[in-house]
Amino acid sequence: MRAMVLDKPAPIENSPLVSKDLKIPEPLEDEVLIKVLVCGVCHTDLHIVEGDIIPPRYPIIPGHQVIGKIEELGKKVEGFKKGDLVGVPWLHYNCGRCKYCKKGLSNLCENIAFTGFHVNGGYAEYMIAKKTAIYKIPETVDIKSFAPILCGGVIGYRALKLTGAEEGQKLGLVGFGSSAHIVLQIALYKKIEVYVFSRSETHRKKALEMGAKWAGKLGDELKEKLDGIIVFAPVGEALVESLKYIDKGGTVVSAGIHMTDIPSFPYSLLYEERSIKSTANSTRDDVEETIKLAIEIPIIPLVTDYPLELANRALDDIKHSKIDGSAVLIIG
Ligand SMILES: [Zn+2]
Ligand SMILES: [Zn+2]
């Protein structure tokens, strides 16, 4: 099978992913073999490929927004059959026994494992997934635009919940890439007003077209105070800048897995019960709820597609905000 493999991390400009021909893997009894059709490209993949976050082993095949068909099932896999359309997100495994799992916080599990990080992911023609890591996807959806729901959508949805923003309130989004443009659609559906901060003029224009109440840059004046802000930009300064826009009691949530250091700031920015919080991974419930919402709304991600061999280019385009919405690899 063809796969884009990371032997060692490097700046994306050096094309660290290498096209290789590998043996098709075989599933264990609690796993399935999936023929990958599409795989969304996530900002986290960029962090892995560039070495901002280090997987437990190399080589590794990234990719954790996979949609494909079940090709082969292990003996202990129930409720699925050959040919079923399934999605595979970031959460590959949680133990169900640790104190976090017992509290329903499987996203913080002590023994957690991730797709395309601990185990090979979907930048390949075939991949293995645990039976607990797959989700049925209706045959009626457009799989190319549905793939980014599986991480961009799920993480954005979890971050939105962590802001506590409710109907009639005001939500800020800092950065307007894959995840943010999906959250905008969820927030509008929940009748939350959306304010978008982006350095990219095309992203600001796109945000307004999609229904944002306001679009500007961090540092611009905004009369309204916001009840919640999600920071997608992996930049510590953006977190501090965001605090200047948040109302008393409001929460600034960072959605990323990696962020540059946060500069010091005066306590007055945080005082009056403002808070800063990070988002880490997602639970099975988050994935199921997001898939359900995505079908119900329906969420329509903007997608730019690339063939598998151009995975480096897709990541480079994300790094330099060259595309609107999400990048997706077309594989099968
Ligand atoms: Zn656990
Ligand atoms: Zn992701």
Automatic annotation (TrEMBL):
<comment type="similarity">
    <text>Belongs to the zinc-containing alcohol dehydrogenase family.</text>
</comment>
<feature type="domain" description="Alcohol dehydrogenase-like C-terminal">
    <location>
        <begin position="181"/>
        <end position="294"/>
    </location>
</feature>
<dbReference type="GO" id="GO:0004022">
    <property type="term" value="F:alcohol dehydrogenase (NAD+) activity"/>
</dbReference>
<dbReference type="InterPro" id="IPR013154">
    <property type="entry name" value="ADH-like_N"/>
</dbReference>
<dbReference type="InterPro" id="IPR011032">
    <property type="entry name" value="GroES-like_sf"/>
</dbReference>
<dbReference type="InterPro" id="IPR014187">
    <property type="entry name" value="ADH_Zn_typ-2"/>
</dbReference>
<dbReference type="GO" id="GO:0005737">
    <property type="term" value="C:cytoplasm"/>
</dbReference>
<dbReference type="InterPro" id="IPR013149">
    <property type="entry name" value="ADH-like_C"/>
</dbReference>
<keyword id="KW-0479">Metal-binding</keyword>
<dbReference type="InterPro" id="IPR036291">
    <property type="entry name" value="NAD(P)-bd_dom_sf"/>
</dbReference>
<dbReference type="GO" id="GO:0046872">
    <property type="term" value="F:metal ion binding"/>
</dbReference>
<protein>
    <submittedName>
        <fullName>Zinc-binding alcohol dehydrogenase family protein</fullName>
        <ecNumber>1.-.-.-</ecNumber>
    </submittedName>
</protein>
<dbReference type="Pfam" id="PF00107">
    <property type="entry name" value="ADH_zinc_N"/>
</dbReference>
<dbReference type="Pfam" id="PF08240">
    <property type="entry name" value="ADH_N"/>
</dbReference>
<keyword id="KW-0862">Zinc</keyword>
<feature type="domain" description="Alcohol dehydrogenase-like N-terminal">
    <location>
        <begin position="29"/>
        <end position="139"/>
    </location>
</feature>
<keyword id="KW-0560">Oxidoreductase</keyword>
